[in-house]
Amino acid sequence: MTSLMREPVFWIPYKRREEGMRDMKNVISAVCIRCGEEHEALPGITTCRKCGGMLDIQYDYHYIKANVSHAIMSGRGEGTMWRYREFLPVTPESSCRKLRVGGSPFYEVPHLAEQMGIAKLYIKDDGINPTASLKDRASAMAVVKAQEAGADTIACSSTGNAASSLAGNAAAAGLKTYIFVPERAPKGKVSQLMIFGANVISVKGSYEETFRLSAEAIDRWGWYNRNAAINPYLMEGKKTVALEIAEQLRWKMTDYIAISVGDGCTIAGVWKGFKDLYAAGMIDRLPRLISVQAEGCCPLNRAIETGKAWEAMAENTLADSIAVGVPRNADKALHAIRESNGVVVNVSDEEILAAMRLLGTGCGVFAEPAGAAGTAGLKKAAELKLIPTDATVVSVVTGSGLKDVANAMKAAGEPLTIEPEMNQLLEAFRKSGGPR
Amino acid sequence: MTSLMREPVFWIPYKRREEGMRDMKNVISAVCIRCGEEHEALPGITTCRKCGGMLDIQYDYHYIKANVSHAIMSGRGEGTMWRYREFLPVTPESSCRKLRVGGSPFYEVPHLAEQMGIAKLYIKDDGINPTASLKDRASAMAVVKAQEAGADTIACSSTGNAASSLAGNAAAAGLKTYIFVPERAPKGKVSQLMIFGANVISVKGSYEETFRLSAEAIDRWGWYNRNAAINPYLMEGKKTVALEIAEQLRWKMTDYIAISVGDGCTIAGVWKGFKDLYAAGMIDRLPRLISVQAEGCCPLNRAIETGKAWEAMAENTLADSIAVGVPRNADKALHAIRESNGVVVNVSDEEILAAMRLLGTGCGVFAEPAGAAGTAGLKKAAELKLIPTDATVVSVVTGSGLKDVANAMKAAGEPLTIEPEMNQLLEAFRKSGGPR
After folding, report:
1. ipTM value
2. Structural domain containing residue A316
3. Residues of chain B contacting residue A143, judged by C-beta atoms under 8 Å apart
4. Which positions ≥6 away from A204 have C-beta within 8 Å?
5. Taking the model in full, what pTM does it have?
6. For B372-384, what is each residue's pLDDT tens digit?
7. Which of A63, A210, A372, B229 could cross-link B328 (Cys pair, CB 3.0–4.6 Å)?
8. Residue B183, φ and ψ in degrees, nearest 5
């Protein structure tokens, strides 16, 4: 079962495309992953016109190989996702320098590797992005493709990182946004949207009703659609995290990549990135994916475990960014996990909170719950001997803990509280095992 | 009047210094800015042993000139504050690669410049740092100097960005922290400290009582003291934002630098950075400082305006990070503003909130109130004709808006709220001037 067919299929009319912007020499076409139908890779394409399946951008790896190398790449000054332009579906004329997306920190943490009983561990902190999540990579791409399509307005329905990243990246590019949120959306996240000047429509209804109204509005006004479930370019933005990881590893891939999974778009994007590099001869082996979901919401991992089609699940986890009971990128995600000979692990909320503490105390990285879930899953996979003790692993942190202070407080524990007297401090230290 | 004399003066005993780490060829000494007494630049120094005045690190600019140039600098891969090592008081042996501090984005925003009626405007977004504020630069320096001093524990008393940056940077370096906060500290900020594994002592008392207890504890246990008011190295960390700005401008300085001012350490650090570059021949002119304080708390700007000594003020502003009624770095800050022939501007809370919207909608930058205050002051300075219409300006954003979501909500306004019906959307758009 997939939910793709239930969604209306919209196309930005071709006539909205600006002339003279066809020149993507590295891109061949956009192919339907379900029926194989080939489409011209126009900036406004969404899902397959024939069957409604997701499209996948196809590259000319001969062209890419002829135009880029390790040496060329490492000589570049550009410290953003656009550093990898040969691998990206944008025209040479497109201006991609709005917010500084990508180029996020990469830390080797030997003491955490030792603690987990694996050979090497690297943390990729993608919470360090302009709007504090990996989703900036997709939204930056959406903004460029919208401009290529000649659109001046982008829309989506979301309450989370997709929405805030779209609002921020569009503001920097001077594009208008319409963002539909269910009324229950947290005020803090809505304020982030409003600060970026998004037109926010708060809908008194469920997420499904909100999504449907947004779809109708996008259709009516011809806005550019930033929806990872139907826009094939967003995954191409997300894949840049994989390209960066490979370069930060000096093109020597680790055995595994651990990442949290919600609607499936991110893990599919990560896999696409590594496959692109492999096809272009930039890395000599592919890593295995460690797909981490929450125990209370793991439809994709369950499908892998049972070998059956995925089924919708309830959304019982505090990690809101991966609480996706009906994943909209199931096809691509399941394909990626299987093709990589991946490992699946489900983690409890307690394990997620513990991973937040581990990342904070162990390497000074403050992750939101969904951002720490990948590390929680890696730890569990090591404990369960799902990966060997000589494994080398990159764990991707997908969003900043400042996005969700309430859950950080759950994870963090309580301080010592005393009167302003040295005697009380000594007494408190004595009880808690502090200094004498 | 200054408050420096009221503070106890602590020295980490010299014997705590590790042997073989004296080799700072670029540093001459640490000189008291009040009495001129010269001190050896040991890693544990604090204030002047003779008079209690602040110390200032003195460099050998001949040595620096002989060892660095524009070309050498631009060839470096290191995208952090440690890129400027010739200008920094650290030994060659010191490992400075913990969190990736510095290398923050720099945006030219011509449309905002036009809107403000100035020639050029650049935004330096220092909210994009590991713990989301400029203070990471000072804390990263504190961590390195603590390690040079042989200390395994750092302490401070603060409720804000200094505390969270210390906790995060120390965690990444494997150092222990003791952080004293008054009980009224916001739970969210305390949770950030706890996530990073700081030992947080919540004191049932005023900030003054909290500070005093922390001083007593630091003295008792010999912890390394991360307090910008007495540790001369912190300003040297902060100055790296100026070095970066100069390089991002390709060494062609703007006429002005606008920045918000609280205890004075940051603006003094920025000035020190530009003066270092000028002394080393890396820039050919110095910018003028635009010192921005809140109308409800502007002791330093008032001293400049009146030409008298500064006097303590109440702390009436929502911009908590610059709500400093008794600035602890007054001497250096006032000297910097005067020496640069600076401009002072005080802004209301409403003007700060408006600047948050301007940065968000105009360039996709989400600033905390104190972080947006510099931009608010620049806008006001342009309106009041305190700066000319052909001025070129860099405005520094000192912290991320995700640190203070409550005030973002105040700034941001309310979304449209409707039932999930196209008719209601059309009606709401009709009333609000949306699309038809």
Report:
1. 0.92
2. 106-131+234-412
3. none
4. A183, B417, B418, B419, B420
5. 0.93
6. 999 999 999 999 9
7. B229
8. -55, -30
